[in-house]
Write a structure and sequence with these properties.
Helix content is 35%, strand content 21%. The protein is an alpha+beta fold and 654 residues long.
């Protein structure tokens, strides 16, 4: 191929991948492939002397596309050159001392403090111009808004979201919304929100990695000269600072190996290490290239690859209707764990790899964590796309958007799209099946083990299928089956809440069950006029209830589920001494194991329990009446009486 033409093609592919990587939720290229193509482009540019302005070798970071205010950086924020050779880093360091630290995988932010106060936060942007995100930065969970030093301070840090918070946020996404692919994408979207309240909900952390300026600092010479001393000073100011160690050319390989052992247990995502000269003046004397500073270099893990054989492609439907290919291959050992499956992301990647059953493939762990296929050695390209969804059996469609092909289920009520309905059914206030989280339920649906509500009670017959899911051994399977069998005995109000009728919460389900005499057949026979006679139920809720049972598919699925259950239809005698009163319970309790126990006693006497204080609240129950909590403040503002647990017990006992 003509080298200039190849350069143009590489620029297009790399820029498209970078755009998706930094701003979207869909990865269209593996990290390994990106690095290989980038290196190939760099080589071609050097060979030909042709460097185009649109080349990713000349650009830093993502393009500024949002409507946030823009501001130019005082000095360009450059990328780091990189190496995968540990010995080469020792040579790069030479006779000098260095600092080795994590290269965190998030969004770089520049922070400015004046008179001890945070006054500005700016994203890296494209390296020349960033976006002003000061209001959002104020919501970072660990960022000091005030620091002891009163002179002007400028520092750089990485905004990051932990793996745990990333998983929680994905679990709680609205029905039909595509999950984020990794914490970096989620963090980028969170930090660059126009509404800082959304940023606050995402639990973003800031980890400082560089002091740019500290005006008026009465420093020792060491603090002026050494990066390590500057980072120590930032810690004294209250910042969380990146983990780092001092290194020299004789021990740097050993220190890299020590970092490597920590990767699997890392709380935050990382995509390598950063090596910096500790001597600031020496590092600055080296200058910089058009893209890279010469005082620091990034180390990227040399991906350990293993050859294996592709045995199967599983088709995994998601809540958005996408049906993603999952490669199943002969198990190999990678980075200390056994790996036998990897996501292929979409049809375009599968076809580009030329995957076929029986092919010899190379697999690795991206950033030593996520299994991926790097290349296909035989490329038989014999995978046949499914004609129907593996979960619901409905027709599928091959979609092509901007050159990325995906497979989509056309059924709007496919169980894979209604994952939250299944998760609600097994939740604590519904059937209360311990051990089935949303992620577990999603995997059970993906594998075709659960297609309808009743299938949950036949998981016991699918041990061979369940056991091949990551994290499921004999003990975890037996525990899950035991929890499912225990859940067969339940109450009508729990079943009513669990089937997911719009706007039917726990309390409303109890009201309806009581009005129907606790009989399930009476409950499902109720019409909108009957429901509207119940205090607290309006027309919208009542009509939604009736319409739910008019849907033949949902009615049939609920009927099948009912046949698997033993319902306790005895109605508990209810008093009315607390009728008309609404309580909010907060803080710890002394006489009850938990708030639900107290809540049940209040409701048994006709009272209501709400989660938030409002003008309709009769009493706020809090054993710490003098607390400065938000609920106490709200109660005082509204004139709601705050009482302790003992006062409620007296009301209950009459």
């Amino acid at each position: 191929m003509d080298k200039k033409k190849e350069i143009l093609e590489l620029i297009d592919r790399l820029n498209e991948a970078a755009k998706s990587y930094y701003q979207g939720t869909e990865e269209i290229m593996s990290n390994l492939e990106y690095d290989e193509l980038y290196d190939r482009l760099s080589t071609l540019e050097e060979e030909t002397g042709i460097v185009l302005s649109s080349s990713p070798t000349q650009k830093v970071g993502y393009e500024v596309l949002s409507s946030l205010p823009k501001e130019a950086h005082a000095a360009p924020m450059l990328s780091l050159d990189k190496s995968k050779d540990r010995e080469a880093l020792a040579s790069w360091l030479g006779a000098h001392e260095g600092l080795l630290s994590w290269k965190l995988d998030g969004l770089t932010v520049v922070l400015t403090y004046e008179n001890g106060q945070l006054v500005k936060a700016l994203t890296r942007g494209n390296g020349q111009i960033g976006e002003v995100i000061t209001a959002n930065a104020r919501t970072f969970v660990n960022l000091p808004l005030k620091i002891p030093h009163k002179g002007r301070v400028v520092l750089r840090g990485e905004a990051i979201i932990s793996y745990e918070d990333f998983q929680k946020i994905n679990r709680n996404l609205p029905e039909g919304e595509e999950p984020y692919k990794n914490p970096r994408n989620l963090c980028s979207g969170s930090v660059r929100q126009l509404n800082s309240q959304i940023t606050a909900q995402r639990k973003v952390n800031l980890v400082a990695f560089s002091l740019v300026e500290a005006e008026g600092l009465d420093t020792t010479k060491e603090l002026q000269d050494k990066r390590g001393a500057q980072l120590d000073w930032l810690e004294q100011q209250g910042f969380q600072v990146v983990e780092r160690v001092s290194v020299n050319s004789t021990d740097i390989v050993e220190k890299i190996n020590e970092f490597e052992k920590k990767i699997q247990d890392n709380v935050f995502p990382s995509d390598g290490l950063v090596l910096t000269y500790d001597d600031i003046a020496y590092g600055q004397s080296l200058g910089k290239t058009a893209k890279f500073p010469r005082d620091a270099i990034a180390f990227k893990w040399e991906d350990r690859q293993e050859e294996t054989v592709l045995r199967e492609i599983l088709w995994s439907p998601s809540r958005t209707g996408l049906i993603n290919p999952i490669a199943i291959f002969d198990a190999v050992e990678l980075e200390g764990t056994t790996v036998s499956r990897a996501s292929v992301h979409n049809i375009s990647i599968m076809r580009e790899l030329g995957l076929g059953i029986g092919d010899r493939i190379m697999v690795y762990k991206a950033n030593m964590i996520i299994p991926q296929i790097s290349r296909n050695l035989t490329k038989s390209n014999n995978i046949v796309l499914p004609e129907v969804c593996p979960v619901c059996g409905s027709k599928v469609k091959l979609n092509d958007e901007n050159g990325v092909q995906t497979l989509i289920c056309l059924n709007p009520v496919c169980p894979a799209k209604e994952i939250k309905s299944f998760t609600l059914l097994v939740s604590r206030d519904a059937l209360n099946i311990d051990g089935i989280s949303e992620s577990t339920m999603e995997r059970l649906i993906d594998e075709g083990i659960v297609k309808s509500f009743k299938d949950i009670f036949y998981i016991k017959d699918k041990e061979a299928l369940v056991s091949r899911l990551p994290g499921f051994g004999k003990k975890s399977f037996d525990n899950m089956v035991a929890a499912i069998e225990k859940a067969r005995s339940t109450k009508p109000e729990r079943l009513l809440y669990g089937i997911g009728i719009p706007n039917i919460g726990v309390q409303t389900a109890k009201l309806i069950a009581r009005a129907a005499g606790g009989k399930w057949e009476n409950i499902i026979a109720m019409k909108a006029p009957d429901l509207m006679e119940i205090d607290g139920i309006g027309r919208v809720l009542a009509e939604g209830f009736e319409n739910f049972f008019k849907n033949s598919a949902k009615r049939e699925m609920v009927a099948e589920l009912r046949n698997e259950l033993v319902l306790d239809e005895e109605v508990q005698a209810v008093g009315n001494s607390l009728e008309g009163l609404t309580f909010v319970i907060t803080g710890s309790l002394n006489s009850y194991d938990n708030r639900d126990r107290l809540k049940a006693e209040i409701e048994a006497l006709g009272g209501k329990v709400s989660g938030s204080v409002s003008s309709k609240t009769s009493y706020l129950v809090n054993n710490d009446i003098t607390s400065a909590s938000g609920k106490n403040k709200k109660a005082k503002e509204l004139g709601v009486e705050i009482i302790n647990e003992e006062a409620v017990i007296k009301m209950i006992k009459g």
